[in-house]
Input
Amino acid sequence: MRMSCRNIGVLLLTVLLGIGSSMADVFERPLSAKNRPELEKSLAKVMDYQVASGDFKQTKSIQKLNREFVSTGTFRISKKAGIIWKTQKPVFSELAIHNAGIVERDTNGQIRTLLPKENPIFAEVSNNIQSLFSGKVTELEKNFKVFYEKKSCGFRIGLIPREAMIRMLVDNVVMDACKNVDRIVITDGEKIPTTLDFLNYKVSKK
Output
């Protein structure tokens, strides 16, 4: 089964349970000149790697159906080679995101390639997710309005895409990090949240 364009877009950014009031509070705290140095230092520390890998649990909550859809798999984020997002259960699929394009492989082994020149919106989404894992606030600000909240361990950032065409796919992103990225919650253009919990996180600086 092939993923829809909307589902690919949500996964990209991000290449990601509902958002409660405590999580939504981050959007009341825009990044400022006062707290910017703190975020720059914290973000650079969390993203100080060349390759990050581990497992993920993805939960998509659809309130009107009163249902949650859960999938699990592995991820690999390389600052040179891009992102590989491999869903293992309940249905296998693999998504590779890099500067040259996006490659999807489904459970039947069929491969679909999206090139930036053929699909500008996916090129823009790819740029957005790469900025998310860049570790640089300046890169984030090119693509998002940035909000920041310091936590007892680490921080929380809220991101609202600047481009209207991206907001059709992704309304906002909330990321929690302590020593590593722990959780990303993406709310899509239809206000449906998807939570990505990162497990067994490993990093390499080589």
Observations:
- The first helix runs from residue 5 to 12.
- The mean pLDDT is 81.
